[in-house]
Amino acid sequence: MKVRHLLPDEYLSLFETKFTEFQIHETKATCDNCAKSKPQYKKNDDYLPDLKCCTYQPFLPNYAVGAILSQKSEGYKEAQKVIRSKIKNREYALPIGLLPSVKYQVGFQKNKKKIFGQDRDYLCPYFSVKNNSCGIWKYRGSVCTSFYCMSSYGQKGQKFWRHVRHLLSYTEMLLMEEALVHLDFSPRQISEQIEYLDRSQGTAAELKSHRMSPSAFKKHWQDRAQDPEAFYIRSYEFVKSFSKKDYLESSGEIGQQIQDELFAQIEILKAQEKQK
Ligand code: SF4
Ligand code: SF4
Q: Which domain holds residue 164?
């Protein structure tokens, strides 16, 4: 499969074809019929077949939320309902995007090993139970896109996917922030929201509920609190108009270095394929 089929369409004009057109042949991670929930793996991982590796909730940047809300196909309807409910209930729907609650993040960090693949309480809200698969596939975020429980290329494959994750998470943060700046958010407002990410501790109030208080919600949204859905869609429209030139300018030397490191991994996998 070409990498392009794993990515949101909006990314294809930003990245080099060396990456997007790269053919990767991952056959071990058979996600439709989850390899890790088959009997031979049960002793080690014990993933339940109806949870798979989706006992995890990713961060979805604002423009990805807008992209999901803009999709017309039936396949996104379930996820759109989930997103609207999260906005309505103040479940960590913020201008930076949709986050797992601090309560969820802290609980997950504490018991990651026991939870992963097994604990229904941690099943991702975007998982389609009806289809037993991801309900937001192309927009599922950097961690999910780059997760392969097993790689047909072994350790080298896992290293490649770590570099993919690095590029995608860097891009997510960059585009999310660019969209916020475009929509008049200050660096201070953005960094106050970023503090909710990657939390292993929380305040008593944060650990009590998956919902934010009305005052915290209002503080982050300010006069946009009436219509977060329209805001997410505006972020998406902005990212769609972002050109490769804009991307290269914003990502600078660090972005170039991340891409170059990834290209080196691609060459390693190509060489490994030739030896087969
Ligand atoms: S990546 Fe996840 S869904 Fe796919 S085979 Fe591995 S554990 Fe199962
Ligand atoms: S976003 Fe999709 S792939 Fe990621 S954990 Fe949720 S359901 Fe699974």
A: 3-23+34-275
Domain count, the chain: 1
Contact 167, 259 (CB under 8 A): yes
Q: Measuring CA to CA, how many Å separate 175 from each of 60, 110, 180, 262?
A: 12, 30, 9, 19
- Name residue 133's beta-bridge partners: 128
Residue 64 Cα to chain centre, angstroms: 9
Does some domain include residue 165? Answer: yes
Has residue 29 been placed in a domain? Answer: no
Return the C-alpha torsion angle 69, 70, 71, 75, nearest 10. Answer: 20
Q: Looking at the domain assignment, is residue 97 inside a domain?
A: yes
**Residue-wise pLDDT tens digits, 9-49:** 999 999 999 999 999 999 999 998 899 887 665 555 678 99
Instruction: Report the residue among 6, 32, 41, 53 best suited for mutation to probe ligand 1: largest number of ligand atoms under 8 A from its CB.
Output: 53
Q: Please state the φ and ψ torsions of residue 87, each to the nearest 5 degrees.
A: -65, -50
The atom of ligand 1 lying closest to the CA of 31 is 4
Position 132 in a domain: yes
